[in-house]
Amino acid sequence: METSFEVVWRKGDSEMPKNVIRIVNAAKDELLLKSLALPYDATDVIRYNASKNAKTISEYISSLVMASLNVAL
Prior knowledge:
With 73 residues, the protein is mainly alpha-helical. It is 66% helix and 0% strand. The chain has a domain at 39-73.
């Protein structure tokens, strides 16, 4: 198993490169979906609708939560 790796960004460096930001955001989205423990079909629908609306999964779920809160108020 290869154990060498290339450090692409460290905390304290200048801004994070765009490719690193994209990977970090994708990992956050996947962690959010896993933490919700939704059925597989529901996660697929969330991924599809987020992609269709050009939003991240986090943004899409946030919009669903805010819409539900506005209805409740």
